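Lecture notes, continued. The same structure-token format from the folding unit now serves as the input rather than the output. Read the line below as a description of shape only.
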């Protein structure tokens, strides 16, 4: 849990970064560099899994611009796996197959939706490329940060896991806004 506390502190720190009048990215975000790194991740995962992975770089109006999809035919569990890359602090998250499919990767492995070998392969690649892997269980916590997402906004549609109508840390760093 010590690592969980470190990551929660990191999320709160990134949440306070100065930025434009929206929550999509902080000041100084370098889209070109982020895309280069995402393309490098796509290449490494394609090599690691022996099949082409797919970079989604058409994301707009979100706190992430890129995701990489690993096709189900390339995974040991025959379930598609996704990696989302936040616009903040080189944060990354692994999902199987959808962001709200599992509360955490341990559960996905226990249910057979992700093999331990594939999990370790993806985690090692993310680490090698300097990404900070954020556990889903932390992202599914109710958002208690400093932005307007912490306020109840009547009628607002908020994408969250397990907390209908409330923003989570997933919303803040890995979702459409």
């Amino acid at each position: 849990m010590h690592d969980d506390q470190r990551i929660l502190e990191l999320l709160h720190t990134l949440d306070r970064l100065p930025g434009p009048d929206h929550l999509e990215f902080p000041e100084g975000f370098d889209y070109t560099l982020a895309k280069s790194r995402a393309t490098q991740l796509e290449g490494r995962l394609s090599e690691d899994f022996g099949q082409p992975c797919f970079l989604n770089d058409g994301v707009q109006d979100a706190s992430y611009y890129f995701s990489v999809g690993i096709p189900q035919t390339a995974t040991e569990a025959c379930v598609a796996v996704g990696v989302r890359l936040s616009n903040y602090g080189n944060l990354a998250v692994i999902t199987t197959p959808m962001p709200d499919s599992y509360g955490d990767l341990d559960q996905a492995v226990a249910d057979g939706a992700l093999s331990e070998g594939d999990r370790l392969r993806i985690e090692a690649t993310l680490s090698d490329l300097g990404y900070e892997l954020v556990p889903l269980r932390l992202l599914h916590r109710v958002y208690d940060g400093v932005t307007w997402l912490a306020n109840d906004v009547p009628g607002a549609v908020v994408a969250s896991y397990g907390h209908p109508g409330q923003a989570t840390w997933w919303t803040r760093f890995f979702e459409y806004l």
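Point for the exam: Helices lie at 2-15, 31-49, 105-110, 116-128, 136-139, 169-174.
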